Amino acid sequence: MENIKKRKVKKMKNKKYNVVNPDTNQIVTTIETGDRILRNKSINFLETTSELNAKEEFIKVFVKPMIKLSSTLSNVEAWILTYLLQYLDYTSGVLKHPNGFNLTLEDIMCETDLKHSHTYNIIKKLCDKGIIAKCKTEGNKYIVVNPYIFMKGRRVNNTLIDLFKETQWAHIFKTKGDYNEEF
Question: Among 36, 137, 154, 168, which is 20 to 30 Å from 23 by CA?
């Protein structure tokens, strides 16, 4: 069984609720559907913590696969993978330039100063290990990153999940009972 949460979004009718002062019986405020209550515990947390590099992008790295990955990759594969991650797109997992164009092998060669054959071989090894995949849709070629290892944001495209669900990296998260265990 996969450890994937698929959220169903249920639209609620907009309802309003009055908050009444019990002593005066006057309406203090109105709470509407979707409003949130900020508790003292939350205020304390926000006051005693800070966002670090709030405007910088970040990549989510899962610990279990990262430990295994560190013993799986050669130095040059790790270097290229680290280089590629700067181009990881939210939810799609596609490697893209900031202008929206897909990252190509030619881009990788130009930016890393590696020869074509060497670049091709490294990308092939990363594909063979299930870390990335080369895809083609309607004539567009692109490279995607395995979301079971790295991702941006909280949600992932289901097609991307399906693409990598049989890799060793997805199986790290298979569950038995209530606990995540590595098989």
Answer: 36
Q: How many CB atoms lie within 10 A of CB 52?
A: 7
Cβ neighbours of residue 23 closer than 8 Å, sequence gap 6 or more: none
CA-wise closest residue to 94 among 142, 150, 163 = 142
43-59 pLDDT tens trace = 899 899 988 888 888 89
pTM: 0.73
Start-end ranges of CATH 1.10.10.10 in the chain?
60-180
Query: What does 139-165 look like in DSSP terms, one character per residue?
Result: TEEEEEE-TTTEESSS---HHHHHHHT
CB-side exposure of 160: number of CA atoms within 13 Å? 25
- Which token pair is 146? 């395995």
Classify domain 60-180 by CATH number: 1.10.10.10
What are the E-state strand segments in 52-121? 60-61
Structure confidence by residue, pLDDT tens digits, 120-176: 999 999 999 999 999 998 889 999 999 999 999 888 889 999 999 999 999 987 755
The one-character DSSP state at 103 is P
